[in-house]
């Protein structure tokens, strides 16, 4: 199981500072959608250059022009790029084909997919690398969480790795880990804490611990 730090509400210098604090405790650093909107793919490039041993995920939430946008994110140094599960199959196929050419991976974000079980089976058949259940900020504010959805994809996804994101905190991580996703994505649960390094370290211990079935 891997731990991904999501950076959403920072500029590039702040992003570098946070990653520096926690780098030994995470596997992947995510350049979040708001950061890409504010700073462009330059943020991906600068973080990859500053932390070459970490994988960098570009959270582009691609909805169209799959191949082109994957190519641009790869050129900036992204290792993993997000595409929305709600989009059409042709965008996902284009993204997957280009990712293979570039030697990068595709994570499908299932945010706001209505029939999760059916769509997860469909995108799993398209050769994507990760399928991620995700409760976005706006639904988190209404008290929603992605934990039940994680169990759904764990049941139906046969090929891709599974991932989970949306409001995960140190106190809810044990419940998440119990479902054994391949990737746990945490933003505010680390970046909003006073001692980010200590929290990231505790989270790392939880995700690396073997779960007894
Ligand atoms: O993808 C995200 C969100 O849509 C804003 O871009 C976040 O990175 C993701 O939700 C993880 O962050 P937290 O919910 O703060 O853990």
From TrEMBL:
Residues 2-203 form the Orotidine 5'-phosphate decarboxylase domain. It catalyses: D-ribulose 5-phosphate + formaldehyde = D-arabino-hex-3-ulose 6-phosphate. GO terms for molecular function: hexulose-6-phosphate synthase activity. InterPro entries: 3-hexulose-6-phosphate_synth, Aldolase_TIM, HPS/KGPDC, OMPdeCOase_dom, RibuloseP-bd_barrel. The keyword Signal does not apply. Pfam families: OMPdecase. This is 3-hexulose-6-phosphate synthase. The gene is hxlA.
